[in-house]
Design a protein that fits this description.
Layout: H1 2-9, H2 34-44, H3 50-63, E1 69-71, H4 75-81, H5 89-104, E2 107-112, E3 115-122, H6 125-134, H7 140-152
Antiparallel strand pairs: 1-3, 2-3
């Protein structure tokens, strides 16, 4: 259905779009909730790092090959890809954003040799959201939108209808007999 709509609205566009998948190199599956996650990161980041922290997080996701592990080989390259283009200062800003992401629980950092920033572990966004929510750091409006998007995309399974339950049998009705007329006792005839 969606391909039909695309081909109707955008004729001859098949070769113009990025489909991804196993036939094409350089693709990455990401959660459909990622725009909301980036918004949350921006909201939680300190002033001046809102957009940068979201870009750094997204850049890390695009370097993952599906194991949740990113080898941080060159801070300047990571910083540049995340939009920090100033030499020296860009890497420092990138590190500040990485630290913020780690403090909020979005990633974990491990050293490699003498480098403090050697590896990043990407934590499942749903786990991070629940952890932050338990600390009162997630606004209700954002959380409602997030849960709606998760349900919309099938990330929250639809509840299965409960099997119909038959109500317990009703106690037997108490049958009352109609009132009896007073009993007539035969009176012997008078003599």
């Amino acid at each position: 259905r969606r391909l039909h709509i695309r081909d109707t609205v955008f004729p001859n566009s098949e070769d113009l779009v990025y489909i991804g998948g196993q036939s094409e190199k350089g693709w990455r599956l990401i959660p459909r909730t990622m725009p909301l996650i980036l918004t949350l990161i921006s909201d939680l980041a300190p002033k001046g790092k809102q957009d940068g922290a979201a870009r750094v997080y997204l850049e890390l996701w695009f370097r993952d090959f599906g194991e949740g592990l990113v080898e941080l080989t060159d801070q300047d390259v990571h910083a540049f890809a995340a939009g920090y283009t100033a030499a020296g200062r860009g890497a420092r800003s990138w590190r500040e954003c990485v630290d913020m992401l780690e403090e909020r629980g979005f990633i974990r950092i491990a050293p490699q040799g003498s480098r403090r920033y050697g590896y990043a572990l990407l934590i499942h966004p749903d786990k991070v959201v629940e952890q932050l929510r338990s600390k009162g750091m997630v606004p209700d409006a954002w959380y409602n939108a997030y849960q709606h998007r998760r349900a919309e995309t099938g990330a929250i399974p639809k509840p299965q209808p409960s099997p119909p339950t038959t109500p317990p049998p009703a106690p037997p009705a108490r049958v009352t007999a109609p009132p009896r007329p007073p009993r007539r006792v035969p009176v012997p005839p008078a003599r």
